[in-house]
Amino acid sequence: MIPLDNTKVNVVVRITNKSYPKGAETVLVLAHGAGAPADSPFMEQLAEELEGQGVACVRFEFPYMEKRREDGKKRPPDRAPVLLEAFREQIQQVRAEVGARCRLAIGGKSMGGRMASLVASEGDAQVDAVVCFGYPFHPPGKLDRWRIDHLPNVTCPLLVVQGTRDPFGKPEEIAAQGNIEGITRFCWLDGGNHDFATLVKHPLDQSDLIREAAKITRQFLDDYAGV
User: Fold this and answer.
1) Which CATH superfamily is domain 14-224 in?
2) What is the pLDDT of residue 12?
3) Reduced to 3 states, what is the DSSP secondary structure of residue 40?
């Protein structure tokens, strides 16, 4: 993880797992959330579990996170045009590496998943699916600020894996919108918050839910994103 002091570390812009790119039939380009890097514990386990399900992952960092990694100073995320361009560049690079026959999905944690869905809504992203882990439907407690206007323009299959306790979008809030579930496939992880962590008395813990999310992702890609 990125140190919180100013210690200089090697810049990690892109992380691939062992099955990439040789022999990879399915690749997921995975972006981090607003506050944690590509090698956070959540992202590390998610990528490992996805590889165990036969989904090769490419994780990358947005420019502001690269700068944070260089000097240890926290920064707010770049503005959307910068984030989207960084995502497009990764898609182009991965597609060039894996070829046209590989099934290519994009997605990410929270903000990273939202950016993936925005890229896919542009119509020319040339991706086979989008997977969002903990989508930030609205800021916590601000039900007047929904981030869903672009979702009808996503033409490829879209999956949202969401904890039932996620303050960025709970089941009852999504149901009240009425129009979201018709354009997005949902899988609700019982007891999970925005990071899929559960309460102490819950029979499953965060690791269990991340593992389940990886299984769900593979099934979704097989069912809806065949190439």
Assistant:
1) Alpha/Beta hydrolase fold, catalytic domain (3.40.50.1820)
2) 59
3) coil
